[in-house]
């Protein structure tokens, strides 16, 4: 399938507009009907471009046919500026498969390999993807934390600005995910004083002034959802996200895409836990899943309005 058959667009124009307009496009991860419904509802309400991100494990969970069925059923129009993006594709084959399915953007994440091999694999993916008018994101540097079974690391390595320049020139990718202190999962900071390395970001921006940069692991981890989860049987102690003020600052720079996953998971889980505890005789999934959709829609609208500043950008 061609992504345009689904009304999707690639990320070139939306990230280019974000670069000029000094805002970021939100990339929200989805893995079922409820998460997709919430993301699209928020994007349409806020008139924001949005990137629908699906990891390899999410694609496996949904299955190719179900995923494509959900996208087809969403009745997306090109004027809505919505992209379907492979998040953390760890091989050339994974990226090719996504493109063949109808993804309009892919991320090749070979950041766990040495620089030379990362360049080679990312360049090969870019060459193949560009033949199909598909955008390509790569990663340089390593984020700590766990997103899924394919994306996890015990250590973090900041992106080297000079290496970033060399990498972009050598690969021909369209955007670059950098490591400046964010991390995957619900435990992003050890304390409230921990800050992102904006000094590194400034150096990268100086060397790549007109190039879209990406921030992964950038959920803010809303306190209200942590409290709701923990008061209803959960055990997410000391969960701490990226400070909203820092995320807002990042969105005003060359960070043109900000990834959010954990916040939606927390909103979903908080709604389900609270509903089932308050209504122990409840067994109709439609009731508590509707509350989960509401929470996740709130997460997305808040991100669009108060963090990425992408409201009314289409």
Largest sheet: 8 strands, parallel, barrel
How many angstroms separate the termini? 26 Å
Could you tell me the radius of gyration in angstroms? 18 Å
As laid out across the biggest beta sheet, the strand order is 1-2-3-4-5-8-9-10
Strand content: 15-25%
**Rough outline:** globular
- Global structural class: alpha/beta
Topology as a string of helices (H) and strands (E): HEHEHHEHEHEEEHEHEHHEHH
* Unreliable runs: none
Tell me which CATH architecture applies here: Alpha-Beta Barrel
Total strand segments: 10
Assign the CATH topology.
TIM Barrel
CATH superfamily, by name, is Aldolase class I
Question: How many individual domains?
Answer: 1
What are its keywords?
globular; 314 residues; two-stranded antiparallel ribbon; eight-stranded parallel β-barrel; 10 strands; TIM Barrel; alpha/beta
Explain this structure to me?
A hairpin with a 2-residue loop joins strand 6 and strand 7. The protein is built from 12 helices and 10 strands. The mean pLDDT is 93. The longest helix is centred in the last third of the chain and has 22 residues, at 285-306. It has a single domain, classed as TIM Barrel, CATH 3.20.20. It is an alpha/beta fold and 314 residues long. It has helices spanning 12-21, 33-46, 56-62, 64-73, 92-101, 115-131, 161-171, 198-207, 223-231, 244-251, 262-278, 285-306; strands at residues 25-29, 50-55, 82-89, 105-108, 135-140, 145-148, 151-153, 175-178, 213-215, 255-260. Strands 1-2-3-4-5-8-9-10 form an 8-stranded parallel barrel, surrounded by 8 helices.
């Amino acid at each position: 399938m061609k992504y345009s058959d689904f009304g999707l667009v690639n990320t070139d124009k939306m990230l280019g507009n974000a670069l000029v307009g000094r805002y970021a496009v939100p990339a929200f991860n989805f893995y079922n009907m409820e998460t997709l419904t919430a993301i699209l509802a928020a994007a349409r309400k806020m008139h924001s471009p949005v990137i629908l991100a699906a990891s390899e494990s999410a694609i496996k969970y949904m299955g190719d046919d179900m995923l494509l069925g959900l996208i087809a059923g969403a009745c997306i129009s090109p004027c809505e500026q919505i992209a379907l993006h492979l998040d953390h594709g760890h091989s050339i084959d994974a990226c090719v498969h996504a493109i063949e399915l109808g993804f309009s953007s892919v991320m090749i994440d070979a950041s766990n390999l040495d620089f030379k091999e990362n360049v080679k694999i990312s360049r090969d993916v870019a060459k193949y993807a560009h033949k199909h008018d598909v955008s390509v994101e790569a990663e340089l540097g390593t984020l700590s934390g766990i997103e899924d079974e394919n994306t996890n690391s015990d250590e973090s390595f900041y992106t080297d600005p000079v290496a970033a320049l060399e990498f972009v020139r050598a690969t021909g990718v369209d955007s670059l995910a950098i490591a400046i202190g964010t991390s995957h999962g619900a435990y992003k900071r050890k304390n409230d004083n921990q800050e992102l390395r904006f000094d590194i970001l400034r150096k990268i921006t100086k060397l790549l002034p007109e190039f879209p940069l990406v921030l992964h692991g950038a959920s803010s981890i809303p306190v209200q959802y942590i409290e709701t989860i923990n008061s209803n049987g959960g055990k997410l102690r000391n969960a701490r996200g990226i400070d909203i003020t820092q995320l807002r600052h990042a969105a005003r720079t060359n960070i043109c895409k900000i990834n959010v996953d954990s916040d939606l998971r927390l909103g979903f889980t908080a709604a389900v836990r609270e509903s089932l505890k308050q209504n122990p005789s409840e067994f109709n999934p439609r009731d508590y899943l509707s509350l989960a959709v509401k929470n996740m829609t709130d997460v997305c609208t808040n991100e669009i309005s108060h963090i990425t500043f992408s409201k009314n950008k289409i």
